[in-house]
Amino acid sequence: MNDPTIYAVSRAFESVWPREQERVRRSFLLLLPRGYQAGVILEPAAATEYLRNVCSRLEAEARVRAQIYSPAGWLWYFRRISREYFAGHLSTTAPADHGLAETLTGLSDKTDDMQRGFVDGAVVYPTDEIALRPVARMASLAVAMSQCHAWIRRAGKGTRFTVHVDRLPEPVGDPLLEDSIEQYDERVAEDPGGTWLQGLRSLDRSVPSMGLLLTVASLPGLWPVVPSWLGQPTDSIPAQVRGQFVFWPTSLDDLRRALDRVADDTRQWWPDALPSLVLLLQGLMYVLVRDGFHMGVGVPKVGYTTLPREGLIRALDWKLELSRGDLEAMFRGSVPRTGEEALARISEIGPVCWPFQPGPVLRAGGQQVVVDLHAATQRLVHMVTMPRDLGGDVVNVISDEFELFVQDALDRSSWRPTERMATLRGRDLKLTSKKLTDVDAIGQHGRALLLVSCKNMPHTERYAAGEYSVVRNVEQRLNEAVRQWDQVIATVRRHPVGDNYDFSAFDEILGVVVTPHVMFSRAPETTAIVKGELRKAVGLGELLRFVKSRSRLAGS
C-alpha cells in the first residue's frame, strides 16, 4: 500500500532542498556573534557560550518561519519526508536532524489551517514546489542548528575551538581527544540506547497489570515495508505499508513494582505532565483496540493519529475511571481529575530545542487533535528517567531493576550461567573471611566466565546537552568504576577459589562495567578491549550484541 502524497512531497522537496540550503548558508553569516576576532581560541566554556548564542538566533529565525503553516500542517509535511535526506557519516545524524526540524515546527502558533484540504476523506496539503520551499528552509535551519549542538557536545568533552568570521568555529586539533570523541560517536551510532528503558517494559511473555501504553518505535531506511492491518483490529486483514514506524506497546509494571518497594518515599521525582501522558497512551490503546479503523495503516506510515477532540476526552475519562488507583499509587497528588484536564496538561508538553526534546505531543487542528505518538513515546522515556541526584532508596531500587534486567538478558543468551553460578548473583564473594565484592550479573560460555558490575548512570538531558561539569563527572565516575572492577577481577584471577565461590574450572575470567547507554571516556584503560569487541566499560546494547542475547528490548 503506497501513499501518493509521500511521493509528491518527496519529489518537490528534492527539487527545492539544495536551493534552500544555500540560502540558509548565505544568511547564516548574519547570525554569527559579533566582536570575535578570527583565529581566537575559545576554551570549552567560552565556545559553549558562543554556540548557544548562535542556537538562540537560529531558533528565533525558525520561530518566525514556523508561522507559515499550522503545527499539524508542518507535521504532515515532515512525516512524508524520509529521514534519509538528512543522512550524515553517522547513522544518528539523520534521525537527529529530522527530529530537530519537526521540533522547530512545533514553535508555530498558527491556529487556522487554510492550506488543508481533503481527498477521499483524507487530509492533504499542497505538494508543489512553492509549498515545499518553507519546509526545505526549515529543514536547512535544523541542519545548521544540529551542527551547533554537535559542537556544544564536543566542547562539553573538553574541545577548544578556533573562531572564524564566515562560518562556525572549528575544533582545535587534539589527536587523543578527537580519537576518543570519534570512537564514542561511532559506538553511540551502533548503540543509541533504548535497550533498557528505566521503568518501561515492552510487551513480551508476561501480561501487564498496569495496562498497555500505545507507544511506537521508529525505523531506519528509506520507507521500509512495515506490518499493518486494514479495518477494525478485532476483525482485521493483515497488510503491509511503506512507513517509518512500528507499534511497540509498553507498560509501567517495572516502575510500579520498583515504587511499591519504596512506598514511604513521597518525593515527587516526575514532571507534572507524566501521569497525564501515561493516561493518554493508555487511552489510545483502548481507542486502537475498540475503534482504530484507520490507525493500523496511518500510525506505521507517519507515527501520528488524528482524533476528534471530544472523542479523545471521553476515552481519557473512561480510562481514568479504570486506572485512577494505579496512577495515584505511582504519582501521588498529580493525577488529573478529568480527561479534559489531562489533555490540557499534555498540551503543555511543548518543543524543546536545547537540550533537545521532541514535541509538541499534541498539535491542534480545529475540532481535531493530532497526537504525535513518536514524540509522545520519546517524551515518556525521558520523563520516567529518574535523576540520579534524587538519591535515596528510590534510586537504589531502580539500580536494582537495572541489575535484574542485565541478568535476565544474559539468561536469554548463550552466556546463560549454570544454576550453581547463578546463585552467586547479588551475593557477596568472600576471600579469607573478607568481602571481596558483590556480583551484579554473571554469565558463562564454555570455559569463560563473565562478571558484570552494573552502573545505572542515566543519560540525562544535561549529559546529552554536553554540559561540561556533568560530562566530566560521569567520566570520572566511570573511570573509577572500571579501575575498581579491574582490581576485583585481578584478585579473582589470582584466587579463583574463595570462601564461597569456585571459579577454578574457567580458563578465562572476564570483567566489564555496564551502563544503560554508552558513556564517554578519553581514558584508554576504560575503553580497552576485554574480548572480541567487548570493552571494559560497555553500553548495555554492546554487551547484549556480544552475548547475542534475546532480551525483550534488545531484539535478536
What can you tell me about this protein's structure?
The chain has 556 residues and is of the alpha+beta class. Helix content is 45%, strand content 15%. The strands form nine sheets. Strands 17-18-19-22 form a four-stranded mixed sheet. α7 packs across α13 (392-411). The model is unreliable at 552-556 (pLDDT under 50).
Summarize the structure.
The protein has 17 helices and 22 strands.
By DSSP (H or I, 4+ residues per run), the number of helices equals 17
User: What class would the helix/strand composition place it in?
Assistant: alpha+beta
Spatial ordering of strands, largest sheet? 17-18-19-22
**CA-based shape:** globular
Roughly how much helix do the residues carry, as a percent range? 40-55%
Main β sheet profile: 4 strands, mixed
Topology:
Layout: H1 4-28, E1 41-42, H2 44-66, H3 71-78, H4 93-105, E2 117-119, E3 122-124, H5 129-156, E4 161-162, E5 170-171, H6 175-190, E6 201-202, E7 216-218, E8 225-230, E9 237-242, E10 245-247, E11 250-251, H7 253-260, H8 274-291, H9 295-302, E12 304-308, H10 309-330, H11 339-347, E13 362-365, E14 368-372, H12 373-383, H13 392-411, H14 419-422, E15 428-431, E16 434-438, E17 441-445, E18 448-454, H15 461-464, H16 468-494, E19 508-515, E20 529-531, E21 534-535, E22 537-539, H17 540-547
Helix pairs in contact: 1-5, 2-5, 3-4, 4-5, 7-13, 8-10, 8-11, 8-12, 10-11
